[in-house]
Amino acid sequence: MALQQPFVDAQIAARLGMLPRYRVVLHNDDGNDMDRVVRALLYIVMPLSVNDAIAVMLRAQTYGSAHIITCPRETAEFYADGLATFGLPTSIEPV
Fold first, then answer.
1. Which of 28, 39, 45, 89 is the most buried (most CB within 10 A)?
2. pLDDT (tens digit, 9 = 90+) per residue, 5-45?
3. Do the beta carbons of residue 36 and residue 86 sit within 8 Å?
4. Would you say residue 57 has pLDDT above 70?
5. d(Cα 21, Cα 29) in Å, to the nearest integer?
6. Is 89 exposed, middle or buried (0-12, 13-18, 19+ CB in 10 A)?
7. Which CATH number does the domain 18-94 belong to among 3.40.50.2000, 3.90.550.10, 3.30.1390.10, 3.40.190.170?
8. Rounded-to-integer distance, Cα 85 and Cα 41, Å
């Protein structure tokens, strides 16, 4: 029986790309100030830069909701649960 070679990054990325994708959405609320929202986004959603977090916060404040990130379901649930611990209203929806 031949041993299987370990996956390389390209193979892992290809397999992750086959998973169903979900959007994480931040909803506006009046209970959190802008600084708290940006800090929570940066703490929980690591791929976001400071400018991305500020843009998400401003979109949610202006339009009522904002798309944060698109990712596999388990990751989306992790982000939504983490942001909920900061009191931020979030939801996930399939793409």
1. 45
2. 566 678 877 887 788 999 999 999 989 999 999 999 999 99
3. yes
4. yes
5. 26
6. middle
7. 3.30.1390.10
8. 12
Domain ranges (residues) in the chain: 18-94
Place of tokens 């698109």: 70
Q: What backbone torsions phi and psi does residue 54 show, to the nearest 5 degrees?
A: -65, -40
Cα Rg, the chain, nearest whole Å: 16
Q: What is the DSSP string of 29-84?
A: -SSS-HHHHHHHHHHH-TT--HHHHHHHHHHHHHHSEEEEEEEEHHHHHHHHHHHH
Q: Hey, which residues does 22 pair with through a beta bridge?
A: 71, 94
- 86 and 31 Cβ atoms separated by less than 8 Å: no
Please report, in angstroms and rounded to a whole number, the separation of the first and last CA atoms in the chain.
41
